[in-house]
Design goal:
alpha+beta; Jelly Rolls; Arc Repressor Mutant, subunit A; 7-stranded antiparallel β-sheet; 11 strands; activator; transcription regulation
């Protein structure tokens, strides 16, 4: 992540355009006034501390913590503080190419934002957590899945009408095929686009269909399969490090974090507890 220190606060930049099609901006204790300008891409911003004055499309808004705002592409806008009091904000800029390739928009799409400032705690928290995930050590498959899932949610509620998908036997067969692919390749490194191509649908529609039919998104399903296999290996005496590497995790630390989140205890604690549970088959859980 790049960093720019100014007299009016600190701004961090993270460029994931080549891998995820997004840019992240984190402005800490900012008092700088950003004069009128435009972005070529769609942006979602949020305020964590203080108040941000946002002017766009002839209207001005005072955005407070818990609110987030939409910046339409190629729309002139300005941002500043109120009475030069510092504020902290985050900004997510989305590539149009990625939105088109993911199936969220068409080539002829013109953005129609229902509202520019939104007060919704659930949506705010999802957007805030997305920043942490995109800047974490999670796999690209997980990051892209979370990105499209959350941005799709924002599109449906604040950018365009929801897309209704009527399920058919063809959809069920496709998702069953994707499940089998993930189960057979759970430790491999593949992208959301790779999986979507197998089903001959866009990545975003894959996420919607998979969640509708299976109940969870494909990246969570992959993690469940990985952890299920990891429990089997640990029960057979495999070391934590070897288990992490065998099941596709980047390192032992990341494996331990995911394992505890999904199982409730660490891999080490699981190995100890398993010694006292004879006859237990972890593959059945």
């Amino acid at each position: 992540m790049g960093k720019r220190q100014t007299e009016s606060g600190t701004i961090h930049f993270a460029d994931y355009r080549k891998t995820l099609g997004v840019e992240l901006v984190y402005g800490y204790q900012i008092t700088h006034a950003f004069t009128r300008h435009t972005h070529r891409t769609l942006g979602f911003g949020l305020v964590e501390q203080g108040v941000r004055l946002y002017s766009c499309l002839g209207e001005s808004y005072q955005i407070t913590p818990g609110q987030f705002f939409v910046i339409p592409p190629n729309s002139e806008h300005s941002c500043s503080t109120v009475n030069r009091q510092p504020h902290t904000y985050r900004l997510l800029l989305l590539s149009n190419d990625v939105l088109q390739a993911s199936g969220l928009i068409s080539d002829e799409y013109n953005y129609i934002c229902k509202q520019l400032v939104i007060s919704n705690t659930d949506a705010y928290n999802r957007l805030r957590q997305l920043h942490d995930k995109l800047d974490s050590d999670e796999t690209e498959f997980i990051k892209k899945s979370l990105l499209l899932s959350i941005v799709g949610y924002l599109f449906e509620n604040y950018i365009e009408a929801p897309i209704k998908v009527e399920l058919s036997s063809y959809h069920y067969e496709n998702i069953k095929m994707i499940q089998k692919f993930i189960e057979a390749n759970y430790a491999a490194c593949f992208s959301l686009e790779d999986v979507a191509q197998l089903a001959h649908i866009s990545p975003y529609h894959l996420l919607r269909l998979f969640s509708q039919i299976v109940g969870i998104p494909p990246h969570v399903y992959q993690q469940q399969v990985r952890i299920r296999q990891a429990k089997q290996l640990l029960s057979q005496g495999s070391s934590i490090f070897d288990t992490a590497m065998s099941t596709g995790f980047a390192d032992q630390s990341h494996f331990t974090k995911v394992f505890k989140r999904m199982v409730g205890i660490t891999p080490g604690e699981y190995k100890v507890s398993f010694r006292f549970r004879r006859g237990f088959n972890p593959a059945e859980v």
